[in-house]
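A reminder from the course coordinator: this example appears on the midterm review sheet, so study it carefully.

Given structure:
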């Protein structure tokens, strides 16, 4: 029984590690495009350095639920244009809100 529990713990930890290994990240840039669909906002970052996008993200966009804490930050950054730059956007490695855009985990906005 103990061996089964140890094995299950190892499998779960590998799954958790692999899920985060394919989470997208964007550093710098600005939000150049936004759209809304099915209670979500989708947005594109231009001028940033991107890495680690999951295979489900075929558009290069991120998405956030309209009721999330990210929604107002995304709208503000878009409205301010070049006056606000993105410090960092991290994804969850999933595309659950919109099938071709990565779900947002973290967004950091900095003033120029």
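Designed residues:
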């Amino acid at each position: 029984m103990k061996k089964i529990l140890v094995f299950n713990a190892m499998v779960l930890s590998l799954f958790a590690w692999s899920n985060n290994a394919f989470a997208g990240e964007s550093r710098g840039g600005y939000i150049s495009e936004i759209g809304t669909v099915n209670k979500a906002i989708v947005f594109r970052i231009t001028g940033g350095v991107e890495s680690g996008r999951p295979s489900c993200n075929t558009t290069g966009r991120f998405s956030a639920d309209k009721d999330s804490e990210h929604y107002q930050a995304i709208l503000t950054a878009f409205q301010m244009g070049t006056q606000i730059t993105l410090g960092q956007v991290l994804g969850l490695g999933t595309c659950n809100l919109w099938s071709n855009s990565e779900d947002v985990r973290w967004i950091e906005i900095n003033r120029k």
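Residues 22-111 form a domain with the OB fold (Dihydrolipoamide Acetyltransferase, E2P) fold (CATH 2.40.50). The two ends are 57 Å apart (CA to CA).
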